[in-house]
Amino acid sequence: MLYSLLGELIHIESGMCVIECAGVGYKCFITANTQRKLPGVGTKTRIYTYLNVREDAVELFGFFTQEELNCFKLLTSVSGVGTRAGLSILSELLPEEVALSIASGDSKMLTRASGVGNKIAQRIILELKDKLKNIPAESNINNYVSPVQPFNNTSKAIEALSVLGYSASEVMPIVRKFDSTLSVEELIRLCLKSMSEGK
């Protein structure tokens, strides 16, 4: 329903901000990472939003980047992972780190978030890895990796970026510009940076 808000940032506090649009102040729950990126109070800013409607509440969540919003939607699609856990994970980890932990099966990275135990972390890995397997064949990373090449860091970065909603055909030309000996996390970071600069 609400895709984004563009207006004046009139209030920031831990885990929450208010953006005023056309005289209406929208209270948004935010991650620590989004909070660090927000400009000062009184400045114009855009945040991407997710509206959560429950029987007892209507809550608006705000994210500084579309990658963080996409990652939040994926996390909260996992059974047993609510909006609070999603915020907690994305307050501790960047979207590319979440993607890397899912693609590599590293549940310990997810347990760094407050309130996220090993059981929930393993469920996130299991369910979201299954979603990776269901990506249509035409966007599968195997179609973009030369048969003479091993499953290298470039391939792993493409798989991790698919967790954030990008297709292999979309990210492959960008990832291939970078040195494949770089770490998976660095390749993901550089790719996301390159795509954001190209918008």
Spell out the blueprint of helices and strands.
Layout: E1 4-13, E2 16-21, E3 24-30, H1 32-37, E4 44-53, E5 58-63, H2 66-76, H3 83-92, H4 95-104, H5 107-110, H6 118-133, H7 153-163, H8 168-175, H9 184-197
Parallel strand pairs: 3-5
Antiparallel strand pairs: 1-2, 1-4, 2-3, 4-5
Task: Round the Cα radius of gyration to an integer and report it.
Answer: 18 Å
Secondary-structure element string: EEEHEEHHHHHHHH
The overall strand count is 5
First-last Cα distance: 23 Å
Spatial ordering of strands, largest sheet: 1-2-3-5-4
Shape: globular
Helix coverage percent: 40-55%
The multimeric state of the shown protein is single chain
* Total domains: 3
Characterize the structure shown:
The protein is an alpha+beta fold and 199 residues long. The protein has three domains: 60 residues, Beta Barrel (OB fold (Dihydrolipoamide Acetyltransferase, E2P)); 67 residues, DNA polymerase, domain 1 (Orthogonal Bundle); 56 residues, no CATH class. The chain contains nine helices and five strands; from the N terminus they run E-E-E-H-E-E-H-H-H-H-H-H-H-H. It has a five-stranded mixed beta barrel. Helix 4 crosses helix 7. The longest helix is centred in the middle third of the chain and has 16 residues.
Question: Features of this protein?
Answer:
199 residues; OB fold (Dihydrolipoamide Acetyltransferase, E2P); DNA polymerase, domain 1; 3 domains; 45% helix; 20% strand
